[in-house]
Amino acid sequence: MILDKVSADKKLRRMALEVAERNFDKSSLILIGIRENGIHIARKIGAYLQENFTGNIEVLELWLDKKDPGEIKLSSTT
Across the 78 residues of the chain, what is the mean pLDDT of every consecutive 10-residue run? Predict the structure, then answer.
């Protein structure tokens, strides 16, 4: 299924709300997005989370070589 911009935005907002609801008692959250497209989604969810989550939100970018998945790198994007 391919979503238009409005539908995709609604789904990301709902995902952020669910994360906030399930983690209301936490003081911080870490979101990890896989480089290229996944990191954009993680950043967007992080931005929407700020509307409903009062704790610290950190977004990390995961680098994974698909041909050699044994090496994984994380870097902070915030």
Answer: 91 97 96 91 96 95 84 75
